[in-house]
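INFO  loader      accepted 1 record
INFO  loader      residues=285
INFO  predictor   begin
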Amino acid sequence: MSGSPPAGLATFGLLAPLTPVADRTGSPGPLDDLAEASAVPDLDALWLRDLPCVPDGDEDAGQGTDPFAHLSLLAGAGVLPPVVGIASVVLGTRHPLVLARAVATAQAHTGGRLVLGLGTGGKPPMNAALGLRGRTIEEFATEWRAVRAALAGRLDSGLVAGHRTTPTPPVYLATTGAERWRAVDGDADGWMAFLGDERAFDDVHAAMERVSARRMPVAVRADVIVREDARGLTLHDRGRVVGSLDAVGDLLARWRRHPAVAHLMVNVRSSRPTEDLLALRALSS
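INFO  predictor   done
INFO  writer      dumping tokens
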């Protein structure tokens, strides 16, 4: 990841959109993220998620604008930080050639700042709605290789790709375990992980590096709900954190100093999410 944090400190990015805790139902308009990105100075990265649908009443309702269209809008407004990313496209939701074209467009519009996260699965109801339920590890590996080939313009059918991705952006594998990393022989430019139990994180990270036989950049995601009346800190699955501002700041500081973590992407939901994002960045420095 780009950025110039103090030595030994991971860079800090926003996973948009920032969301008031009292408003989880409405879908944010494209300008919501534009205002948030403009209001947060000196971010190292801006990440957009790809959620085509969520269950009714889900905490992620309203988080699902199209990330590629959204990045093009932000790029045109000239408010992008050094790195922009997709966290992440679930494999199988877009044909590899269609995905490669979207990536090439976003890479061109953002001046080569893109990092592409490819996920191994989202929320089970979303997977079912998209026809992705019950896929095998072999199907995942085949889809991964097809996307990698399409991004590189390697087509075996005599066709010419309708895009040119120059340079090809780094592709991070978003997964919770090492099984899928082994299935693609470590063929990823980085790992996208969830904040959680540090010992489990270290075990998976070590297993992945054994497969790849190299050190790799790791981006860790935290979905933070700030509640000033909270006592202590609660960690949930898939990077969900609930706690007071100070407690969450202390947690993020530990992760930013973890020797394996290159970047921390943070989504904030609170009564004043922009201000709390800035506070968390300061508290974790």
